[in-house]
Amino acid sequence: MAAASLAAVAVGALAADGAEAGPPARGRVEVLELTVRNDQYTSVDHGPAGPSLGDMDVYSGTGVEDGRDVGRGGGTCQVIHVRGAAVTAQCVITMEVARGSLTMQSLWTKGESPLDMAITGGTGAYAGARGVARFQDIATPDERVRLEILR
């Protein structure tokens, strides 16, 4: 589930990139594309060994664009359903960039890619934001995110 953390960081970076071009008009979509560099990760195994309800992955990372850091973020993925090898978690991510922050959430079945996360709000220039953040190649050196932000 570390992949989700990478996604959060990527989203923050994308938002920062959009800030340089100026905010889009209200009701328009701002598209940001970033790579994600994870820097901290831990897994908390509650209850019996192995995947079980309540287990949690906690992570943080950096959003990168054109070789420069443009945002930071992190979040958690908590296991809410286990059926054999299929482990589903609820993931929540917050990322911070120069013009504000973005919040995202989704359900994620561990190992699936891409992951689409709902953009559920933000602060600053991103207050009231909605949209979709798509993470690809989660938890790999090639992880990236594309945010489509509606304000």
Low-confidence residue ranges: 1-21
CATH architecture annotation: Beta Barrel
Number of strands: 8
Mean of residue pLDDT values: 85
Query: Structural class, please?
Result: mainly beta
Number of helices: 1
Radius of gyration equals: 15 Å
Distance between the termini: 29 Å
Q: Which CATH first-tier class would you pick?
A: Mainly Beta
Provide the number of structural domains: 1
What is the global morphology? globular
Strand order of the largest sheet: 1-2-3-4-5-6-7-8
Beta-strand portion reads: over 45%
Can you tell me the CATH superfamily?
Allene oxide cyclase-like
Following the backbone from N to C, one meets helices and strands in this order, namely HEEEEEEEE
Topology-level CATH name = AOC barrel-like
Q: Helical amount among residues, as a percent range?
A: 10-25%
Q: Describe the sheet with the most strands.
A: 8 strands, antiparallel, barrel
InterPro entries: Allene_oxi_cyc_Dirigent (IPR044859), Allene_oxi_cyc_sf (IPR034871), AOC-like (IPR041013)
Protein name: Allene oxide cyclase barrel-like domain-containing protein
Domain Allene oxide cyclase barrel-like: 34-149
Organism: Streptomyces hydrogenans
Describe, in plain words, how this protein is organized in 3D.
The structure is a single chain. By secondary structure, this protein is mainly β. The protein has one domain (2-150): Allene oxide cyclase-like (AOC barrel-like, Beta Barrel). It has one helix and eight strands. It has an eight-stranded antiparallel β-barrel. A hairpin with a 2-residue loop joins strand 2 (56-65) and strand 3. Residues 34-149 form the Allene oxide cyclase barrel-like domain.
